[in-house]
Amino acid sequence: MSQPLIASLRRAVAANPEDLPLRLHLAELLLHSGDPSGAVTELATVLASEPANAAARQLMTEALGGRPEAAAETQPAAETQPAAQTELNAGAQTEPAADTAADTAADTEPDEAAPAPRPASGASFDWSAAEEQLGLDVPPMFVDQPDTEPISDSVFDLERPRLTLAEVGGMTQAKQRLEASFLAPLRNPELRRMYRKSLRGGLLMYGPPGCGKTYLARALAGELQAGFLSVQITDVLDQLVGSSERNVRELFLAARRAAPCVLFFDEVDALGQRRSQTRNSALRGTINQLLTELDGVEQDNDGVFVLAATNQPWDVDPALRRPGRLDRTVLILPPDEPAREAIFRHHLSHRPIAGIDTRRLAGRTEGLSGADIAYACELAAEHALLASVASGQPRPIGMADLEQALAGIQPSIGPWLETARNLVTFGEDDGTYAELRGYLKRAGRL
Amino acid sequence: MTSPVRQAAALVQLSPASAMRLLAPYLAGEPDDWFALCLAAQALIALEQPERALELSRRAAQLNPTDDWPVRLQTIAHRNLGHHADATELARRSVLIQPANWQTHYLVANTDLWADAVTQHSMAAAERARELAPDDPSTHNLVGQVALALGKSRLAVRSLEQALRLDPENSIARHELARAHLRRFRLGKSVTGFLAVGRMDPTIPQTRINLHNIAIRTVQLLHYAMLLALLLSPFSAQASAGLVLLIVLGALVWARYRGGPALLRFAASIPRRDPLLVVWAGLLLLAGVMLVLRGALTLGKPAGTAADGGLFGVAFALIFAGVATTWIRRLHLRSRQPSGRSR
Q1: What's the pTM?
Q2: Alpha carbon of A148 to those of A144, A257, A277: distances in Å?
Q3: A residues 314-353 lying closer than 8 A (beta carbon) to B
Q4: Is the ipTM of this complex over 0.90?
């Protein structure tokens, strides 16, 4: 049974002590994961509130050594056997674990499906069952220090996105760049080994706001069939001394534990701000910790793919972009025509529409971001709704509504492009922003 | 301090939107927490929502009238809304509440700067803030800005240089220093300063505007030099040619070695932004070429030959065409000026 799940349930129960079904569920998990004493504690609390709770009573019987019939038929013996008992028995060299499990089951209640119990003898005496009956809690002989500290997984919600890059409309260039810089080496381990291409380092996606950086990151995680941990500054930064650094460490521990995992830093300019520009000591420490974790000095980052996204790449600490860290950059531009068409379709598909020519709309919305298009759809819906209210007759959203909405929308990426123009004009021409320079030239902005 | 407020305090400067996301539900449950109200007001000011910030800071001031923070936040909200009289009054009130806090004096001078109403009182407030916090670069920066507004360029340069010594990455101080150099007509220092600002902080839009202004001043200088060359030419064609050559070569060498590729990239963007400036500069350069040719042709010969006269005439015409272009350009720019003042 997954320990993180139990840990997370424990916290949920601690937060809502009155939630008896949740506590019951925790007790059940504890019992099945080999912690009957933990289960008994939880069940006792449930029964104190609801003495007649049949499920709690049944589980309590099971936890205290009894074996309900239904459970005996469905649960395999190895799972019903508490892990601690198995370890104890293995350590004492008395009998193989499977046998012991069978014996325990046989001691409590005979089961037709189970193998016939062997006659008890002095050599096969079940010490663990006896200890349990006597209530002795014998500590293990040797205690190993765990490799890692327990981590709080619930703080960082691990997702498994099903979205893939093929499902992202348009954005061909960005997808090609992601394929070349990230996916191809991952998909071809033989070639990667041949060329001695390391998997170290991460990818920084930058571009104007509302153009799908986060969406693309999710698709990339789906493409890799990896877990997805999205991190924002609120998940990490804390004013208490040392807390932010600890949060960063725990975050990477969670990612390593969940490997393969995409660790995605959204708005990395806030968390990884230039240290020279910040006087916030908590943030400085956090950035230092982030650099250490990215380097994987203390632990290997194998299977942890670091992605970051920002609207303000000029604010990201240059140290974060050194080789081995976020050393590859991909510019995510405003959506191209096929992408705009897909975005229109996405935002209109669940609304009542009639006669919408998405290709025409995509053709006349050059320069609008995905967020602008979403806003246009929202405005068009609002317009149709108001018209329906006025006429007392509901009508679908039409082209006229959308065109009216689009007439009032200015591309929101204008200020970003102005800043980007300054960046490529006055910044160091070291090739970092070559893609951006090319785009601005093509767009006639340089 | 409770957890969401503590976290919001850590986030308010770095990510005001995130801070607001934490504070909004907290304040719904605890509407009388003056500290959280102040944090929310600070975040809203950063998010450019001064009306709501004003409302929250007012409530915080009612809850804790002895603290200067809510009053300072009210001042900033009023200032950003353009209510200069209210902002000035509140800034002075914050000094009365907490005279030992440099930020209250800072705000007095800063509010005057925003209102374009800088006086000797503003300078006194800025100086007081600097006395109270001599290690804070922003106080030196403020003194420099106030001095610049009062026309005291030397004091401005000294203060801004001190601010940069304390914080070499302070792009605002560097920008103001470049402005101070421009005021003193030190075009070279000013250009390098603005280029550095553009490199350090591309989000400052004034950098490009000021570099453009310098380009205009440079062409203006060239124009004056041409007129001087025309005045000199009856006496010596070689002298006028030499003068033109010297200025053009000097500018090119400087641009190559001090301005660097960033300056050339900026220069390449001027035709799109201000084509008439390019026409103006082109006419003057052509006139310069004519004057140089004239100087070369008359080298060792008496002035007054036919070729000499023709070249002189063309140069003369070009220089005066430059004057016409300047006028057209000015009229064109005036028609593009937005009504009212923008900051």
Answers
A1: 0.67
A2: 11, 10, 34
A3: 314
A4: no
